[in-house]
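A.,

Following up on our hallway conversation. Structure tokens first:
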């Protein structure tokens, strides 16, 4: 029987070659070996997306989120449920789970005057990191505070840092044909900046704080070192990238349709 290390290597090899059925078969073997490893289910969701099986992708992501929640990683679980809503906006289970998390947060805030903040990088992207690696990453990241209207990045800026929302709400917008189009909102646990990191292109959208917000910046060299040790992070970023590009294109099409008809 193959060791789990060899199986993971075979999985990434098949995934990189876009041999998705073979990659899925390997993940099913890993699921037997590591039934409580959320990364196995997360990667299954990625592969099902590649195979255009949205239903099974959603089921896999939700199962991964359930395990993360059982293991005490509530924020990571919520981040995964948000990912589910990006590909299946009407998924009632994910909506319910996110609403539960919001209500729990409000209840905890009422019970305690001082609430210890969660680890600043507790997001699904880093689910495979050990506690010591999380602690090391926390020591290398930069934290930025923004008031409403504060600009985090401008469309056209250079830079390859990755960002994560620690708290608050941010608006994403882009300029097309002289018109500013709002293409989305970001909230706690959301990641952005992956397009510039992966492609090296200037920022493709502007991100502005809508409320008092805290944003985490992860420099390119720090992220590259993480990817060297955990190559699956790069694959997750590519999934974010593909999903975000698709959503942005669709949003722009909707916004520009009245102009084209005029």
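Then the amino acids I'd put at each of the 262 positions:
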């Amino acid at each position: 029987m193959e060791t789990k290390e060899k199986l993971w290597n075979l999985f990434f090899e098949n995934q990189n070659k876009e041999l998705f059925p073979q990659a899925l078969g390997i993940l099913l073997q890993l699921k037997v070996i590591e039934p409580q490893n959320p990364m196995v289910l997360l990667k299954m969701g990625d592969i099902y997306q590649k195979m255009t099986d949205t239903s099974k992708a959603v089921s896999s992501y939700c199962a991964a989120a359930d395990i993360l929640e059982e293991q005490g990683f509530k924020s990571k679980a919520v981040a995964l449920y948000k990912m589910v809503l990006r590909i299946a906006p009407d998924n009632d289970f994910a909506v319910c789970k996110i609403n539960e998390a919001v209500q729990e947060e409000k209840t905890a805030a009422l019970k305690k005057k001082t609430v210890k903040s969660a680890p600043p990088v507790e997001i699904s992207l880093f689910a495979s990191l050990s506690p010591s690696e999380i602690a090391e990453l926390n020591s290398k990241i930069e934290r930025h505070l923004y008031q409403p209207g504060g600009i985090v990045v401008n469309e056209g800026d250079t830079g390859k840092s990755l960002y994560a929302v620690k708290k608050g709400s941010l608006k994403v917008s882009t300029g097309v044909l002289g018109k500013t189009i709002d293409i989305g909102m970001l909230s706690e646990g959301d990641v952005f900046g992956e397009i510039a990191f992966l492609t090296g292109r200037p920022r493709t959208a502007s991100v502005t704080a809508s409320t008092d917000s805290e944003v985490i910046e992860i420099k390119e060299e720090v992220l590259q070192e993480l990817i060297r040790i955990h190559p699956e992070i790069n694959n997750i970023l590519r999934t974010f990238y593909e999903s975000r590009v698709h959503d942005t294109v669709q949003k722009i099409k909707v916004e520009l349709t009245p102009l084209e008809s005029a």
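Residues 4-111 form a domain with the Serine Threonine Protein Phosphatase 5, Tetratricopeptide repeat fold (CATH 1.25.40.10). Curious whether your intuition agrees with the design.

B.
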